Amino acid sequence: MFLVVCAALAAAPVPSWLKPLDLSSPEAAERVARRVLTKPKMTLQHVEEKLAAQGGDGRDAPTGLGIDESSTAALDAEERELLTTRDARADVEALKDVPTIAPVPERPRVSVDRAAVLARGASPKADAFRAQARSVAAPGAAVDNPCVLEEPAPQGGVRCARHALDPFFATLDAIAAGDSSARAAAVVLGNSLIASDHVTDVVRARLVERFGDAGRGFLLPDRLSKVAGRKVRTGEASPGWEIQNFAQDPPDPKSGKRLGPFGFTGSVHLSSVAGEQTSWRAEAATRARLFYLEHGGQPAMRLEARTKAGKTVLARIEAMPKVAPEHDATVEVTLPAATRELVLVTEGAGAKVYGAALEKEGAGVVVDTIGVPAASAQLYVEATEKDVFVRQLQQREPSLFVAMLGGNEVRSLDYRTIDAARFDAYLTELLARVKQAAPEAACLLVSPIDAVKASAAGEELTTRPEIETVIQVERAVAKREGCAFFDLFAAMGGKGSLARFKDKGYLSEDLVHPTWRGGDVLGQLFADALLQSWVGTPVPEGGIPVARRRDAKVPKPRFAGLSFPSEEQAVVVVKGDAHEEAPARRPLSRFFDHLRALERGEVTRVAIGQLGASHTAGQMWTDRMRERLTERFGSAGRGFISVGRESKRLANTGVVRTLDGRFEIADGREVMLGGTVGMSGTKARLEPGARFAIDFCAPLAVGAGKGHAARHVTKRPSCPAARSAGVLQIAWLATPDMGSADVAVDGTTVATISPEVKNPESDVQLLRLPIEELTASLEITVHAPAAKKARGKDKDEVDAGTSESYGPVHLLSVSEERARPGIVLDAVGLPGTTGMTPQRWRQDIVAEEARSRDWDLVVTAWGTNEAGIASLDEASYRHHFTRTLDTLLQASPRADCVIIGASDRQDQKRGEWRAAPSHELVERVQRQVAADRGCAFFSLRTAMGGAGSIAQWLERGLANADRVHFTAEGYGKLGDLIVDDLLAAYAHDSAVAAAAAQEEIARAQAKDKSEATTDVDRRGG
Prior knowledge:
Helices cover 32% and strands 22% of the residues. The protein is α+β, with helices and mostly antiparallel strands.
């Protein structure tokens, strides 16, 4: 019907701009028919069909412009292929009948009896506080710690793989098991209930009694109120500091602005004159970090350590010019032994300081209490700078985030300045910021305490009914966002409980805030509930990552997306005997050893193989990575190129390939099982007379004309300045019907591919050709018979009497390497694939071709396509992805591995852009596989900015409008993010290795000195 209407409008006498089809002439009508009736060419066989006849400079579009911003018709076949969002469910369908029973690697087992640990921490103070709770009829309550992730159980059904508080509880387990590097950190944000560290001080004390003290944590420069509150969680400041917080202090009367920007502290301290200082008691802290605002006109500051013997300047922060941009900053220092105080001294007015964090070496608990009087979820969202909040909270590295809010919302509901829906939205946004800052942390919402109204005479206290609404909202948000919930209102006795507190003397005269004794009762109720939840929560059989203390001697860098799951992975807790296992090697340690050997000149080649989908196939991402790495370590050649048609993505780096004659390219995405393709997922079948040519040093400006000969020039402006002799490696398949082919280098035949000369141990055949310094081009021409052209013979009939058999040659890839020290980075990508797709191909062929590349680092970059499969089965995906990775690692026995996760992606559903349905599942599986196989993991989504960041990249011109792919600039940024993290990890690993070597030398010297002294004593002097 639609076509009929279009045709009627096209033929009707209406203006041309109303005509949907142009049928004004026979030629125009023919063009319309071709567009409507021609079947789209969607297979790899047709991907680059028109490229050989097209010119161009090898660029996608003007700088910063997405290739999809022009009309679809203008896109060439290669770009359409890269941008086509394929239905990745084909992998699920193809592999549905493959058994998915895979051995689960056994993890270290320790014996931790949670109940026994809790019993050992008996405390007279805790008993006294419990007695006080009984005196006000406070019954206590349990923490609601829901299951946030289920998985199939081996016996059928489902089991809980993770509870909301497991990240925190797993770290407590590790500490109880004797792990000296475990650090259980909690950040508690709240209102005046905790501003003076009442309530939370008791929770901290109960945790420290059982798990050890990891330091004082984050401390403000001074009390937010000079007339109230304790200095337990602050420093001691000189009187000239101006203090503002986001809830109580009005904007500056002159400028109309607040003093901020406010971060997660909700406050900032401003020095008014030179010489202002604040001091924090060290209490055995070994390191400290100052949080401050770097801004225009900032005065110089210095951090000093005060000991009994004097003072030592640990760090000096230089003054900033008036035009300097504003940015929150930190400086970290190591404290000398016997430090009593850490002191900050300002050398002028205008210093803006948030506070300092003090921590100790060794395992233990650290609890940050950040309470701001009159704080609310709305203020934390509207009155703080989001980026500052996220960065500051991220640097505290919490394994547990606690929000103790709602008391002020009770009154706001009563005064109708907020409603339940807005409170829900603010609380949800606050948790979204927390998850961006600490995606692996547990979260816990705590309800407000009883809130009352007094009678006119002040004698009778009645509970405000709005508290029920606040609790309902908090409970619903906690459930929706995967957080635990503790009803402190119910724990203290519910309605009327604050009246009982008043009668006992546990409530202050304002009838709002408990006294310090009332705070002790509330804190004990909270601590008991948290510890009982730890004891009563079943331990996940799969293990949960453990939060660990950073090395103070060699601080670990803060990565954009890189992590080491096997180091973070929790041990499995059992109530039996523990058995020790050999320590696992550190992820990337062998790769870093190879890089150090390369820099020392002990090896001449370090090879990286990256396999993935369209992000990798597009070349721009890996081109940037190759550029950065070869700038640092040198280039040992272009590496792997699959056999195929011309690709302008390759031409960007001076590589031009062409195919002439009759050929067919097999597409590994179209087979079900047992596909005979190479590790790139393709294979080129060249018929007799066909020719494949590749030039590794072609000019970037491709000339006119067709075929390789038109591009073969003497002067090659895209060649690297320093080239050397090297090797070309050709990979092809031995098949029963194969023919022969001549192999020419720079126009001279140097070898022959023949069925008579092959390795019988594998179908994958390799030919390695030494090449000279200036060699750049390779041609493979399949032998063909001379055709009969006379006596009416068919043009393809061969001359009689020939002894040679003719048949096709199946080519896989060509690799170029140079005999000079450096990096080789192979980019092996096929659009539309997933980490499961290679399981549809013959694994022996994939493994043999991978083995021939001899990689030192295997990188997988699948996940974005899987993230779009709503019906993705977790167990099946884990099985097939693990098998794909195992094939590559078994073929590369000396290689380390990095798993790059899915980039952030949004799909359009019913006119709205929504997050890809299975992103969390894919990242969870890949992170676990990385832990099981000792790989590093790079969260591309985290590095981009978290969930929804693809929209921000699109706004900045870094992503394409499909919200899956990226522009050239965007791929360059992704490459930089990955290489920056790898180089930072390499520098850290080298520093750790150097420190270990120095310690070994020192121990050897001490041993020699001890033995020498003993020998002297033995000889009598």
